Task: structure prediction
Amino acid sequence: MDGHFVDNISFGPAIVDLVRKNTKLPVDVHLMIEHADHYVPRFIKAGASSITVHVEREAKHDVEKTLRAIRDAACRPGLTLNPATSFESVEPFLDKIDILLVMTVHPGFGGQSFRPEMMEKVKRAREWKMKTGAKLDIEVDGGINADTARLSIQNGANVLVAGTSIFHAEDYGEAIRELRGIK
Result:
């Protein structure tokens, strides 16, 4: 988050670099920033495994060129859809991405309520994936808890982003088990 595309600031490439040095797990980066094309090389150098950028014009970059730069660096490219953004805006790029991130809240602020009407975008992505046989991860972020995780998965999501429901829980492990449907 750069304080421009969304009204908050968060982790930069230096934090990604520190995380990469301490794990062999994939490091997934969601750039909620203007001019993602300018920062993509820095996050790649820092060790990102995947980089998801926004398709909205407020993101101020050439989407196709940015996705190509991510893929050319052997990193998994992804696109994000904000709640107000139509599914049609990503359709021209679906064959160029590995991840489609559907935001069920306005990005940049934790603790917002899940918007179930965003599941229509998840269903459309699943339909496209099944029709084409593509290996597309369908990711959902925003208001994810045990109930909304189940709903997201039922509609076609295979990757979930949970923040508040884990970090506000007394027992992180139990909160994660609940998200996975393990009681």
Notes: The mean pLDDT is 89. The beta strands are 28-30, 50-54, 76-81, 99-103, 137-141, 159-161. The chain has one domain: 13-179. The chain is about 35% helix and 15% strand.
